[in-house]
Amino acid sequence: YDKYLKPSTKKYFKEIHPSYWELKDGGNFIVLSHYPIMAFNNHMHGAIHLYGHVHNNTDDAKMVERYKEDYERTYKKKPRMYAVGAMMPYMDYTPRTLEEILKANEE
Question: DSSP letter string over 17-71?
Fold first, then answer.
């Protein structure tokens, strides 16, 4: 959706990246994407994937949840991939830190 941002809105962002971005935050390797990626880079090595696009109670959300269940059965651990759309209850249309996102999801 970045292509639809008006120049008057873009000025409020420090950086705008493409739909896929990898970065490190402390000791965490993070994959950011507009879309959920089932086999994201370093998923088997503790990487964290934050994604949008998937809205609550949609067929896409149900598909992602089924994938997460299959992942856990196969690898005996939960995938560290989290929907961070603004409409998610724990996001509440508010910017969140990585720590807050993990706390809300890794109970």
Answer: --SEEEEEETTEEEEEESS--TT-TTGGGT-EEEE-SPPTTSHHHHHHHHHHHHH
pLDDT at position 6, please?
84
Distance CA 51, CA 71 (A): 17
* pTM to 2 decimal places: 0.85
Closest C-alpha to 60, from 81, 35, 41, 85: 35
* Residue 92 Cα distances to 60, 64, 71, angstroms: 20, 21, 28
Between CA 72 and CA 76, with CA 74 as vertex, the angle to 5 degrees is 50
